[in-house]
Amino acid sequence: MEETTKRELVLHVNGERRSIVTRQAETLLFVLRDGLGLTGAKPGCLNGDCGACTVLVDGTPIKSCMMLAIETVGKEITTIEGLDDAPIQHAFVRHFAFQCGYCTPGFIMNAHALIERHPNADEATIQEWLESNICRCTSYQEIEAAVKEVLEAKKAKPTDP
């Protein structure tokens, strides 16, 4: 028997409360895209392998095709639309760290979380984090260079007391 029960969910997305009525079995990816009009997270493999749908849930990169929207109630969801001019976005442009751009939002979300969680990340940590996303049309050198640039800038910037 198909699940047809719909429910109102109140989600915290990009700093705003958003209400949506959706099936309880709907993935976060499709609620974001089809329900809320936030199309930055992309459907790719739809089984958690490619990372094109990566968003942050309470600061942790999550493949939104693998999480039910109902699981995010009470959590903070950040999409590429919510990064609001983050340094990693500019670094991707400076290093030409994209070609077709389809996977770029997922890479940026993952890289942003890496930089926030591991400001002193070494080469191995960077490579490990980037392995969770797949790009079929560019090398990873440009992406790694963008991440390293932001990490270096963060290290060089004095922290506020």
Automatic annotation (TrEMBL):
Signal peptide: none
Protein name, entry field: (2Fe-2S)-binding protein
Gene3D superfamilies in the cross-refs: 3.10.20.30, [2Fe-2S]-binding domain
GO molecular function: 2 iron, 2 sulfur cluster binding; metal ion binding; oxidoreductase activity
Keyword Metal-binding annotated: yes
Species name: Geobacillus thermopakistaniensis (strain MAS1)
PROSITE patterns: 2FE2S_FER_1, 2FE2S_FER_2
Record-linked InterPro entries: 2Fe-2S-bd, 2Fe-2S-bd_dom_sf, 2Fe-2S_ferredoxin-like_sf, 2Fe-2S_ferredoxin-type, 2Fe2S_fd_BS, Beta-grasp_dom_sf, Diverse_Oxidoreductases
Annotated ranges, domain 2Fe-2S ferredoxin-type: 7-83
Residues spanning the membrane: none
Keywords noted in UniProt: 2Fe-2S, Iron, Iron-sulfur, Metal-binding, Oxidoreductase
Entry annotated with the keyword Flavoprotein: no
Pfam families: Fer2, Fer2_2
Pathway(s) it belongs to: Alkaloid degradation; nicotine degradation
